Amino acid sequence: MERIVEQNLLYDFYGELLTAHQKEIYGEHILNDMTATEIAAEFGITRQAVHDMIRRCDKILTDYEARLHLVAKFLTAKEKIKEIHTLSRRLLREDKEQMKEDIRQIESVCNQVLEDL
């Protein structure tokens, strides 16, 4: 998985577990794509302090994922739901009316779950 996507997912799942200061700095880096120099200027701290904070937050969030596996479970569930969705669309091509209605309902539920993820 691309590092930026991974950092965003980790922040989405575990960001609330960071301190307010960590969330501010890491959030600016991850969500707003600010550089260490820009963050340092905004918060009145050194670039090195920003780099250290980003590394520390990366480690904290990665450690949470290593213990809880919420991001991995989310990605697995999302892939399974996509697969169900694909199968249901394929079954819609069959001719049995009741099966079509049942599959339409399955597809609707899959769409709702995917939107919620």
TrEMBL record:
Keyword annotations for this protein, in alphabetical order, are:
Coiled coil, DNA-binding
Q: Which gene encodes it?
A: ylxM
Q: Answer yes or no on keyword Coiled coil.
A: yes
- Give the function comment from the record: Might take part in the signal recognition particle (SRP) pathway. This is inferred from the conservation of its genetic proximity to ftsY/ffh. May be a regulatory protein.
Q: Which domain of life is it from?
A: Bacteria
Gene3D superfamilies, per database record: Winged helix-like DNA-binding domain superfamily/Winged helix DNA-binding domain (1.10.10.10)
Q: Which family does it belong to?
A: Belongs to the UPF0122 family.
What is the organism field in this record?
A: Anaerostipes amylophilus
For this protein's source organism, the top of the classification is:
Bacteria, Bacillati, Bacillota, Clostridia, Lachnospirales
* Coiled coil stretches, renumbered: 89-116
What name does this protein carry? Answer: UPF0122 protein AAAU51_09740
**Does the keyword section mention Coiled coil?**
yes
A single GO molecular-function term is: DNA binding
